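Q: My labmate handed me this sequence with no annotations at all. I'd like to see what the chain might look like in three dimensions before we decide whether it's worth expressing. Could you predict it?
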Amino acid sequence: MIEATNLIAVFIQALIMTGIGAYYDLRTNEVENWVWLVGGIGGVLLAVFHYGFSIFLLVHFVFAAIVGVAIVAAFYKFDKYIGGADAKAIVALGLILSYWSFIILGVSILILEVFLIFVGLFKRERIGLKELMEMKAPYLPFLFLGTASVFIGLVVS
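A: Here is what I predict for the chain of 157 residues:
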């Protein structure tokens, strides 16, 4: 029960973090660094509180940070479709939610693709992911919806 409670607490923290990020991304198209610092550090503290500090946990955080930065660097270097706030959000989610962050990314991209299909049907023209990113559309609202969808699925099951 404690394990599930801690996971729910971390997901709620991730929802708040991505929700604040999505709000600022939609409103000003910029997200301050404090959102990701507070969210990431809070998630690390929750994990340390739950599991206790250990070498395994330290290795986990270092590995999660390296993998998150590598994935973001690949997106940013090769596509340039991802903004700084999106990159920081992905790294922070990776730190606090570990492998759940990959599931969230997949669900977020799926929600984004469904959105593009509906926009394409409404506008009667094909809009692809490349066109959306070239329009500098914010990705954080989709990351928030992906986090919320995975959280709801976790709570319901």
